[in-house]
């Protein structure tokens, strides 16, 4: 997980819950799925740091893009996690999108992925996808996979 929202385990808005529902246990190897036992950002960071010991890179990162151009819990107008000096893991306490408390990988750590795939859906995200593709200064434009960075954008028929 590139980020997680500070909700109790099993909460419908927790990323872990949504991923498990979308992929199911047939695809998802639960032994390789790193979830958090806590919903406290500092505890989540400590827990994830232990899980990431010895992990120098990822094979694949699947990310979304918010309507404001954020990805993971890296938001426009907030340099937290975007500088090269940022720690690999961040406790976020001031997210502009609820909930305000989260945990996130830094852009530096995300970019240690061989392949990065953005999955974006909904007509409401057309404008931000255009801005990202034009290279506007947004967190999502700073994401660069070692080998590939791809985006799949799906609009809904409405």
From TrEMBL:
Origin superkingdom: Bacteria
Keywords: Isomerase
GO BP terms in the entry: carbohydrate metabolic process
Matches recorded under SUPFAM superfamilies: NagB/RpiA/CoA transferase-like
Residue intervals of the Glucosamine/galactosamine-6-phosphate isomerase domain: 2-144
A molecular function GO annotation: isomerase activity
One Pfam family it belongs to: Glucosamine_iso
Record's keyword annotation contains Isomerase: yes
Segments passing through the bilayer: none
Keyword Isomerase: yes
PANTHER family referenced in this protein's UniProt entry, alphabetically: 6-PHOSPHOGLUCONOLACTONASE
The name this protein goes by in its record: Glucosamine-6-phosphate isomerase/6-phosphogluconolactonase
Source organism: Leptospira vanthielii serovar Holland str. Waz Holland = ATCC 700522
